[in-house]
Amino acid sequence: MVLVLDSELTPDWILFFGHFHPMLVHLPIGMLLMGMILYVFSKKEEVSRQKSIAPILLSTGITAGISCAMGWSLSLAGEYDVDTLFLHQWLGISLAISSVALAYMAQYWSQDAIMSRFFKPGLIITFILVMATGHLGGNLTHGSDYLSTYLPQPMRAWFGIPPKEEKAKPSNEQPIKIKNLQEALVYQDLIQPTLKQKCWSCHNAEKQKGKLRMDSREYLLKGGANGAILLAGKPEESDLIKRVLLDPSHEDHMPPKGKVNLTEDEISLLQWWVKEGAHFNKKIAEVPFDARIKTILSKYTQANKSQETYVSPVLQDNIPAASDADIEKLRKHHLLVMALSAEKSFLEVNAINARQIGDKELQDLEGIKEQVVSLKLGGTKITDAFLQQISSYPRLIHLQIDRTQVSPKGMAYLSSIPHLETLNLVGTSINDAAIGDLSKIRSLRKIYLWQSKVSDKGIKLLQIKLPKLLIDKGWSGKWPVDTLSIAIKKPEKK
């Protein structure tokens, strides 16, 4: 029987002790294997062989016992499948007992002609216990399909294992394309794939961090140790949304440190789904949405191969890391400061939690001007003064200043940014007067201009000046449609 208490009632020092279990558990395994190797390859007589590994077996039993105690403490968090935990627990206890028993046999029964015969079978049984206990421990932390995930197809058939599912695409790739967006289900086709990729590894049938499962509708609605995580129609009060919006350095941020975070588009879709009632069976065409969601949905129907495979040359640079003090200044303004990769020091700054921020607060960006490559400041209080500030940023590639107070005159500053490739001006006052300055940004690859004041004539002029530029002017036609044409093609020569 596994004793599982409420983690809220378990003293912190017990849970703290339990978190050392993964660190110590490998020690008795290594010691037992070392003892077996010494026994097998020793050239001494049987009695000496057994006595020589008796101390090793005793140490194995003691450390295994301590590891069992730590494992029991860890189990009190209530985050693991009870049936698997039960087997893992008692196999571990059996391993500790058998190791001590073998140490006793090796020390005191090795000269007994009858009793010494039980030593080898006991050693083999103990080895089997190690393998079985370790396998179940892996199941608890990584899932029951951990060993078989990459088993080749012919061998999967031999063992009766279902064919391997297609590996989910990394978050920096374009989303999987949906053939018929009208008939697609919001939860099944948009929300569930994100939860499966980013959340299920810690919240599934075999592992429930915070007593939360997210792999089915019933458990998602049930919530976890702190109650419901979804409040239909109230994303700002839903714990699921609040957790993903926390700064990545925050201890309650989800996914936790070391895991792949949700993209801004994924967060926006999640917020939209909850805001519109968190329905599990409604089609996309049945749920109201705004222009922002429309743009995100368009990515599920269109593929631009050149955009997907292109990597900016700026990202090949090797630069020093930004100081923690400079990053902390920005986080105090509730800005998200995220590293784009573990290998490079490039940073993205996102104001998704800081819509009230303005030019004054963003002066603190100066400390990381060498590292920042992406600024997502849509809906904030910035003005042209901020554009003047960032005009000297040497590695800025992506600039999102949609729905801000920037003016056509401010575009003159952007032509000084040497590597600007993507510019979002949606919902701004930018008009045809800014076309001349925008056309000077020779590095520009894509620009978003819908809901701005730029006319069709201005767009055509910009396209002529920058023939390779991809211009997103918004949606044409009525919704719902199967395919959406939002890119302005290069004008044909007459």
CATH hierarchy, class of the largest domain = Alpha Beta
- Helical coverage, percent range: 40-55%
Name the structural class: mainly alpha
Number of domains: 3
CATH topology of the largest domain: Leucine-rich repeat, LRR (right-handed beta-alpha superhelix)
The helix/strand order is HHHHHHHHHHHHHHEEEHEHEHEHE
Number of E-state strands: 7
Strand content: 5-15%
Taking the alpha carbons of the first and last residues, their distance comes to 82 Å
Q: Can you summarize the main beta sheet? A: 7 strands, mixed
Bulk shape: elongated
The radius of gyration over CA amounts to: 30 Å
Mean pLDDT: 83
How many distinct helices?
18
Named at the architecture level, the CATH assignment of the largest domain is Alpha-Beta Horseshoe
CATH superfamily of the largest domain: Ribonuclease Inhibitor
Strand order of the largest sheet: 1-2-3-4-5-6-7
Descriptive overview:
With 494 residues, the protein is mainly α. The chain has three domains: 12-158; 186-298, no CATH class; 318-472, Alpha-Beta Horseshoe (Leucine-rich repeat, LRR (right-handed beta-alpha superhelix)). Helices cover 40% and strands 5% of the residues. The protein has 18 helices and seven strands. It has helices spanning 12-18, 21-24, 26-41, 46-75, 82-109, 119-142, 153-158, 186-198, 217-222, 239-245, 264-275, 291-298, 305-309, 324-331, 384-390, 411-414, 435-438, 456-465, and strands at residues 336-339, 347-350, 372-376, 398-400, 422-424, 446-448, 470-472. The longest helix has 30 residues, at 46-75.
